[in-house]
Amino acid sequence: MAERRQQATITEVAAKAGVSVGTASKAVNGRGQLRPETRARVLAAAAELGFEPNALARGLLSGRSYTVGLLTNDSFGRFSMPVMLGAEEALGAGQMSVFLCDSRGDAERERHYIRTLQARRVDGIVVTGRRIEPRPPIDTVVPVVYAMAPSTDPRDVSVTSDEAGGARLAVQHLIDSGRRRIGHVTGPAGHLAARLRASAIQEALSAAGLPSGPDLVHFGQWTEEHGRRAAERLAGTHPDLDAICCGSDQIARGVTDHLRESGRQVPADVAVCGFDNWDVMVFASRPPLTSVDRNLHAVGRRAAQCLLETIAGQPITGPRQLPCTLVVRESSLQPLPDVLGLAADRS
Amino acid sequence: MAERRQQATITEVAAKAGVSVGTASKAVNGRGQLRPETRARVLAAAAELGFEPNALARGLLSGRSYTVGLLTNDSFGRFSMPVMLGAEEALGAGQMSVFLCDSRGDAERERHYIRTLQARRVDGIVVTGRRIEPRPPIDTVVPVVYAMAPSTDPRDVSVTSDEAGGARLAVQHLIDSGRRRIGHVTGPAGHLAARLRASAIQEALSAAGLPSGPDLVHFGQWTEEHGRRAAERLAGTHPDLDAICCGSDQIARGVTDHLRESGRQVPADVAVCGFDNWDVMVFASRPPLTSVDRNLHAVGRRAAQCLLETIAGQPITGPRQLPCTLVVRESSLQPLPDVLGLAADRS
After folding, report:
1. Rounded to a whole number, what is the distance in Å from the CA of B316 to chain A's nearest CA?
2. CB nearest B85 (choices: A55, A75, A95)
3. What local confidence, expressed as pLDDT, does residue A108 receive?
4. Counting Cβ atoms within 10 Å, is residue A7 exposed (0-12), middle (13-18) or buried (19+)?
5. Can you list the domains of chain B with their CATH numbers?
6. Least CA distance to A56: which residue of chain B?
7. How does pLDDT run across A259-268, given as a tens digit for each residue?
8. Among candidates A52, A89, A223 on the partner chain, residue whose Cβ is nearest the Cβ of B119
9. d(CA A10, CA A71)
10. ipTM value of the model?
């Protein structure tokens, strides 16, 4: 550490170029009236010394800091992480730098971070979290965009993924593949994501003239264990079940495990769809899971773009939804037509 | 957005307090000679207007920005995320703010971020990544601490978790529980983490006078599928195997699944240990997995503390290792003594 270099100062640049500090400052900041050869001499000296203009000083001069705050309440990060990285990608590749603030769900810590971000004169703030329940708007004077968890104020700019649309993609795929008795296993009824997806699925089943209703829906936990238990109960109450559309990949994996261990083939006997397209789960399942991708990376990127537009003065307000994508894998493949009449042998 | 408030300026504070801008500035920054009642009047006006001192200006005055860069190359984030959050926790709770920079493993992007951080006059940089292989030091004039992935320069400050020590904890626990034929299934031999853990396990087995050697070690992928296949091969070559110490929780889960599906009881017949203590895997496994926690959150926190000490001028250099922790769950519980002689019935 003793040999650590120092950052070159504007004084050193001025001395090397043989000009005053004021002249050197004008040259590196592109301001003022200077002879072209003087400016060139200063810039050459700056380059040689590795001088970098001071972004703090430039922020004061321009009234903008070219920094943005990224405020999350989700330390665990499986859902907010792709949102954050999408936002960071959209901002950091340009001249914007991103302040990372993790409130860990604590309101006092969130206020501390908002004060800090304002003191640092951020140009705006992206707010994200683990769940999709609307959250109270944050109290700040700078532009804010909400990602994944929208603001309760409908005038605020929010970017979320279309949960209901994603669930419709999955169930419609099952219907189109010829499945006729479709159960749904999902997370807690107290979670908005679970309710939105369940309603969309029931509506699609009704619209297709297929059985729907509470006896085909099992709310519970977002766990494999809930998936295993609910699959067992559904098999008991609906022995003719030929598909299970799940609210998460963890649930779908539990469902798949139970079906396999109780002697039912996936997808030949029962098709299974997950939700989240979480690589760890979809590829480890046997067979690999068809799943709905919420495109959270794109949600973060879009939120950052909305923030940049707002900072640039464009008058955008209100919520925006991005579509989900269905990724089809082996767990929901259509059974081959039974041209040889072999199916009867299996029973 | 039309009703958005503006941040109060020092001019407004001065007008409200009936003093000059210079006097107001001295009061809010705690500088200069002022009568106590003048300072009090200015601070009262500042509080009433919600004025926040400008951190950019303070950074220029003090020569410090009270910002730190957090540079990661791991977009996926399962390993670097806890390190980053630990660092953010140690820094953000105080007056330090954290710039998030994700180079996504791209060297050019990393250089862009280092230039940006220097231009922003960060007080220091924490560098982290996905793997533990030493990486070339970054080229910068500010203090740097490496977390999880150390620098190749032994004088640089690095904080890592003790991988070999963690593996020793797991295998010693199995030995102490009376296991005598212990296999090891782990990730690619090209990964330093896999090699360090495998060597530590083989040394501990030799030291205990137990069988060790290449036929008991299966390098491969960090996947459940590799776990299932390696468990099958080990069962074929070593039918008397009574424990498998795994290089990751995903591998351990695959091992456990294969053992259960081939009719062997975990832990009664074969004990299983994982590595990483990843909640998603250890609790979803049947039975829940004993695992080694690398304490990556603490690694991040410690790295941030080292950086703060370096910024404060303390002369610290070289690598630091934090111990891992063994978390014992059902998968490695000691078999009960067979006082009733029932074990013979199972064979």
Report:
1. 8
2. A75
3. 87
4. middle
5. 10-53 (1.10.260.40), 67-161+296-322 (3.40.50.2300), 163-294+328-333 (3.40.50.2300)
6. B56
7. 999 999 999 9
8. A52
9. 35
10. 0.77
